[in-house]
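Chain A, query sequence.
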Amino acid sequence: MSAAGTPEPWRVRGACPGVAAPMATGDGYLLRVRHPIGGLSAAAARVLAATARRLGNGELELTLRGNLQLRGVAAADLDAARAALAPTGLVDAQAEREARRNVLAAPAPDLDPAAVDVLPLASAVTAAILDEPALQDLPAKVGVVVDGGGDASLRGVPADLRLDPVCASGGTRFRLAAGGTAAAATPLGEVPAERAPAAVVRTLRAFLEQRAALDPPPGRLRDALGMPGAQALRLPGADAEATGAVVDAGSPVRAGDCLGAPAGGVWVGAAFAFGVIDAARLEALATWLEGFGGGLRVTPWRALLLTGVPPEAAAELQRRLAQMGAVTDPADRRLGADACAGQPGCAAAWIPARTEAAALVECMPALVASGMRLHVSACEKRCAVPEQGVVDVTARADGHALALRLPDGQAREWTGLTPAQVRARVAALERAFVRQRNSGEELQAMLERIGPAAWIEAAQAANHEEEERDGN
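Chain A, predicted structure.
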């Protein structure tokens, strides 16, 4: 606690830092650059890398919301960092405007022939939100997704509000929906592209009016859907049952789906363990891309799509990426692990979260290959933890908590564990999955066949076997 009895900023869950409003952490200040719609030019990437190297901790972080973060900036260097970043056009001078610039666009719909190019629409939605005075009090965590389908679709990325292209005769229209992924969100209506920005603003205004009328107010749109006044969130005259089918609403895209060069060579994809890329290496990569007029598209999978590279240079680019430690193999286990900054970067952290996550993910190769994720949180804020489909480890003052959060929403939690006990239980879940599944069966199919309880019971038995073996 601070001297005034209020929590230090790094202990406040829900804090949403920026460049205009940086946040104090354990290693200095954190500056978050909001999602760059349409990506970064190579020159802008060089500026970000040079600023992180000169004034920060020498690294950049790619977040699960498509943002970029610089850490470790000293208080005395904040003005210099802001001045260095200003020419990129990626930052706001006013913290209030910056806090509302939370529109995540599909990373490369202009390059993908299977996608609808929504970059102009995403920019228009952002401008409409920023220019609407009535939205000044919009909670900083409320975000909008604008998807275009295709190979780098955001259909599996949850959002407070989302626009997804729908199949319609006579041109593309967009379904406005709230509170989830493309498959799970609640439809609010359907609009043509030219009316979509106004529709987003109208719904967000209705949400703020609903918040003002309720005590306690809903924090997010997903909460508002089941509360009084939710009908006002729908577009006038909208029939939720009559909305068209979302284009390309297949399985969620994973980081591994975007790695390498897809057919047609429109990009080369690379991910980074825990979303961290060394600033010096990014600077060198950006300088190399600049020679081709290329750029970088930022994704919510903690991966970059590198564009503008001639086909004959793609192999050289992938070699450079491998040299700098990028993840280029879709089967790489590191793609299944997420962790917060942890020690020493965060003052609230009990553990070095990324070190623990790197070890734990090695205990669950079959689960990772089947789509299960690992997330390690160094404190109870549990920053950026997925709600479902995750092995969720949280460090607490009284020991580690291990939660198994299944895709269907069911959960099981064990508390008061040592790190060794966490590893043993994760390994037991892995062994039980391998023993219980049929040949080639995915986790979800196995759970539908035998039920979550049977898997957890088998894991308990496997863990007990291991404890008895160790005891002997």
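Residues 1-7, 9-13 have pLDDT under 50 and may be disordered. The chain is about 30% helix and 20% strand.
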